[in-house]
Amino acid sequence: MSWQNVVLTLMLRYRVKRRSSGPPDVAAARRLAAKMATTPRLPPGWRIREAVAPIAGEWIEREGGAAETARTLLYLHGGGYYFCSPKTHRVITVGLAAGAEARAFVPDYRLAPEHRFPAAVEDAVRAYRGLIAAGTPARRIVLGGDSAGGGLALALLLSLRQAGDPLPAGAVLFSPWTDLAATGDSLRRNDRSDAMFHGHRVAEGARIYLGEAPPTDPLASPLYADLAGLRRSSSRQATARCCSMIRRGSPKRRARPASRSSSAPGASCRMSGSSSPPSCPKAAPRSRMRQGSSGA
Fold first, then answer.
1. Running DSSP on this structure, what letter comes out for residue 289?
2. By C-alpha distance, which of 120, 49, 124 is closest to 90?
3. pLDDT single digits (tens) 75-103
4. Is the dihedral of CA 68, 281, 288, 62 positive or negative?
5. CATH classification of 3-273, choosing from 3.40.50.2300, 1.10.10.10, 1.20.1540.10, 3.40.50.1820?
């Protein structure tokens, strides 16, 4: 573990975890997210541009713009579906866009409790279809998301498949929150090691988004969905978190702890565990969108 990781973990334990022992506080979470938000130094020749249609959000792109056919990252931020925003996740999205030499669109999707499930899914679908309508080929789009945003990216894929829309080239997910029913053993096993959240509070946070909707609805909890026929996806998660894991096979079989996993294209995959919604990120993952058979 690097010294930066040690410092970040200590800071999160002090600023986030000690405040999350009680019931979720939407207003407090939003205030903390806004306070911790930071904009990293942009690489030379890059800019952040606000967007209003087809959905509010922001573009991270090279100055002068890029062709609509350029490779594009559609990134869905985390935050438990009730806090955080494109601004809070710039440390991640700027790093991903610049590292992949791709323009990135980060939609400012509607949050709970003002807009409960499935509002976020509907906004994600609108954002994706807006890219397609503007001339971006599906094969040039890769989805991304962390925690709740990772689960939302999977829900977007499921919605597109059900509607018969062209699917994106793939998806990159960071600790996707796939089980809002909070049934994963990692909620108990990693309760102490998780730097941000207490496992027993995750179900309460999920209810803010779900309202009266069942937590096992596949568009809320992709753990309960049939993922057959979806594009290639890659998932990254820390073993110390109350996190979800992707694996092949029966949902009743325990997944081995791992720091990364991926699903093969067209494979029927299942997920176990449950990730807790993250606070604002403070360090960008070093990641690249790979070119290959996916066409991205």
1. P
2. 49
3. 999 999 999 999 999 999 999 999 999 99
4. positive
5. 3.40.50.1820
Q: According to the model, what pLDDT value does residue 272 have?
A: 34
Query: Residue 99's CB: how many other CB atoms inside 10 A?
Result: 15
β-pair type (46-51, 170-174): unpaired
- How many other C-beta atoms can be found within 10 angstroms of the C-beta atom of residue 28? 13
CA distance 116 to 123: 12
Phi, psi of 203 (to 5 degrees): -60, -35
- Work out the pLDDT band at 159, boundaries 50, 70, 90: very high
Token pair of 151 as six digits: 């689960």
pTM for the model: 0.81
Residue found under tokens 């829900």: 155
Q: What one-letter code names the amino acid at 157?
A: L
